[in-house]
Amino acid sequence: MSVLVNKDSKVIVQGFTGTEGTFHAQQMIEYGTNVVGGVTPGKGGSKHLDKPVFNTVKEAVEKAGANVSIIFVPPAFAADAIMEAADAGIKVIVAITEGIPVKDMMQAKHYLKGKNVTLIGPNCPGVITPGEAKVGIMPGFVFKKGRIGIVSKSGTLTYEAADQIVKAGLGISTAIGIGGDPIIGTPTKEAVEMLMNDPETDAIVMIGEIGGNYEALAARWIKETGNKKPVVGFIAGQTAPPGRRMGHAGAIIGGADDTAAAKMKIMGECGIHVCQSPAEIGETMLKALGK
Q1: What is the DSSP pairing of strand 145-152 with strand 47-48?
Q2: Does 189 appear as a known binding residue?
């Protein structure tokens, strides 16, 4: 069993024939991901990268059996693409697009309520189950198969954590890049919960950043449920001054609990093994596992 994506996932690419969609679809196919086609309105019936192009997601679901979608649609249309995928019955939607207006995401998130769908992102690197499926933009060669799950707000730190874990002689079960926008489909706690419930994951790396309360909520949930698996945590933005936005749209210190120091304190109090630097992730994980 894996989390969200595996070798049986039937993946489509929304925005398939665009520059970004083409480049990353090619990388995903080369990795071995089961890409069954893509969607570009008006180009249905043609072929791209030797895969069928459909006019709508509904058509891709009906004709190719698609159950996972990755979205490379420009920001102005991306929320509509998310809702179209959900409406067509896609079970896992990975929205890579950065810069989707907050108002659009509020509507999309509301639309997904009550539907049997998991949205990862937007503004995220995607999801990878090493050796099975890469539904995202991450460099696949960094990730080696193993039993450590990763949940991260940051794309580059997802890759750094994976590299640290692999160099420590361990490997990755599934890595989930949840995205750094103020409104995302799957917050930290929900992603951590998936990995806690995954029998093929022995421990978790949780990477957060300044802004919002996702990490605090996840840490308290981990403690409340009895710290079932070791969790190693890192928070980016330790030197950020109050009121400064860093990188992601959601990475802004709005109150005392939004700082890196406050989040790290809460995580430590909840039994999480907190790293001061991403360079310590592999070594801290070995200690957490008693190796």
Answers
A1: unpaired
A2: no
Task: Output DSSP code: residue 245.
Answer: B
Q: Residue 17 annotated as binding?
A: yes
Q: What is the reported pTM?
A: 0.96
Strands (E), 171-230: 172-177, 203-209
Quick one: how far is CA 241 from the chain centroid?
27
Residue 81 parent element (H or E): helix 75-87
Dig out the tokens for 133 from the structure. 């499926």
Say if CB 35 and CB 21 are below 8 A apart. Answer: no
Residue-wise pLDDT tens digits, 143-167: 999 999 999 999 999 999 999 999 9
Residues in the chain: 291
Positions marked catalytic: 248
Place of tokens 């707000």: 153
- Give me the phi and psi of 65, to 5 degrees please: 70, 25
To which H or E segment does residue 13 belong?
strand 11-14
Whether residue 18 is annotated as binding a ligand: the answer is yes
The reply, when asked if residue 159 is annotated as ligand binding, is yes
Q: Is 289 left (phi over 0), alpha (psi -120 to 50) or beta?
A: alpha
Question: For residue 279, how many other CB atoms are within 10 A of its CB?
Answer: 12
